[in-house]
Amino acid sequence: MSDPADQVSAAKLPERPASVAKYPVNDAVRAAMAVSLRGCDELLPQDDWLQKLARSNATGVPLRIKLGLDPTAPDIHLGHTVVLNKMRQLQDLGHQVIFLIGDFTSMIGDPSGRNATRPPLTREQIESNAQTYYRQASLVLDPSKTEIRYNSEWSDPLGARGMIQLASRYTIARMMERDDFTKRFKAGVPISVHEFLYPLMQGYDSVALKSDLELGGTDQKFNLLVGRQLQAEYGQEPQCILTMPLLEGLDGVEKMSKSKNNYIGITEPANSMFAKMLSISDALMWKYFTLLSFRSEAEIAALKAEVDAGRNPKDAKVLLAKEVTTRFHDAAAAEAAEADFQNRAKGGVPDELPDVALAGAPLGIGTLLKQANLVTSGSEGLRMVEQGGVRIDGVAISDKGLKLEAGTYVVQVGKRKFARVTLR
């Protein structure tokens, strides 16, 4: 088995100089730098990235910008699109973006932020999720200008000898500087040896792709820096790293997550997406504008000044909701979603309702709400009844012991959840 460096050179990727030369910084370069910095948490090292931009501007050679995503779940929510939006902004500047699907690293399991070993996925799960991931990511990226790669291309051929040679390039001491590893070690929580391979293999991806910039969330900083160091080990110009903030979900506290049910999925129906956007707090709205909107920073600042001067914050929120809904659906769907939201706000029932067929009449209200997927549990349903948040055929109910007989009902939970339930 050859050294990993030999395999990388065999990939016949464009050559990069070993160090960043000095190129003139003009207005176009400064504008590109401003786009890079918008909303980001860290850009390291900024001086190196400025020179990479200057070199690209002077030579006309696009920079190679990498985003790696492990297909650990089949669907993407708006939190995932924060880094995708940044990729699209850099793509629109003319740079080459690489959407790297971590089909190999998914089998290891990313330990980032974990207090226990993450179970690896099966090959079938990875392939299914990867197809869905890219299809959904293409709603943000320009597919015609996106390079799709799978890290199994260079990781599978390494074999045991190549993996050992790669591992010799990084020390355990450096690996233990990683915060989650340190905490687990001090707490006596087991760390499997294979977990050390994850940041190493993610870093090797940057070597294989000769990446100029790698993007990720703030929880990926350590992994991104490993890539930078490995590139230097292999005689390449080290990549810069750009981390984006983690987006809080609808609760305004926890990061957006399907497991916390505070997310907005990018394939949700337009009406649901629009209504959820309207539910975020006035304060969080501005972070959403920065990270999710493609409006210029000057436009956003002007809008914020109007709100500060007395304009209704809801006006700004509607603009954001329509922009995001249009991106993932179309303008007509966004207009219809706004009309639907206004109708609901007046107490109306939306034109289109999901139809749910249930058996077991007479059925307790808590069980009915759960089986109709209007709440996550029967106890949550009963709490909603107690709080006056449940309506049957437009009438608020307060009896937690209510049992519904066979029939068809329009059931509403809160302001946004509706279903036409046929109970038998």
UniProtKB/TrEMBL annotation:
Extent of motif 'KMSKS' region: 255-259
Gene Ontology MF annotations: ATP binding; RNA binding; tyrosine-tRNA ligase activity
'HIGH' region (motif): residue ranges: 71-80
Protein origin, superkingdom: Bacteria
UniProt main location, coarse: cytoplasm
Coiled coil location: none
Annotated family: Belongs to the class-I aminoacyl-tRNA synthetase family. TyrS type 2 subfamily.
Name of the protein described by the UniProt record: Tyrosine--tRNA ligase
